[in-house]
Amino acid sequence: MSDNDDHKEQRIGLWVAGGAAGLATLAILFYAVYGWESGKIEGSPGYGQAASAAAASAASEPAAAVLAAPESQSISASVAASEPLAAAASTAAVAADAASAVVENGVVKFYFATGKADLADNAEEALKDVLAGVREGKKAVVSGYNDSTGNAAANEELSKNRALAVRNALLGFGVPESQIELRKPENTEAGQGNNAQARRVEVVLE
User: 169-179 pLDDT, tens per residue?
Assistant: First the structure.
């Protein structure tokens, strides 16, 4: 092999080596510039910002879930709390339309549920003074009233039945029939306040 061929092979080898070295240098420069600009190289202006943004994004998702949970729980708690209130309101409405008996200024007043003539459970206790007065020779006067709603004739009949229910209770407590008087008021719709108060039978001693 001649000296010329040897020199030619050496030059080709140097060119290949130089080209490879140049490519490697370019690659290093490219990644260096890219890393500097993207903040992935320590010391660069944006270093750590991308990681912080990613961490903040990941942290915000659980936080959003935690914040959403109390809201749904508060709604459930509100609904749960409203149920006992609704039940209490319903009970109060029933109680307002229930039978009861009270004594006011010596007058025994029996109140009735809508459309009914059933006496309250405390009827005997409410009539205690009336029973004592009858034993002294006085007379029990029973008068029935009704509210102004519905059919007037039906209301008058219901008022009469309620007065009879009170009379029967007096008879059951030992009051002689001769000492009981059913007296129809001049105005059976002589209400006092609301309809529940108008649906009543009054008992007085004379």
Answer: 999 999 999 99
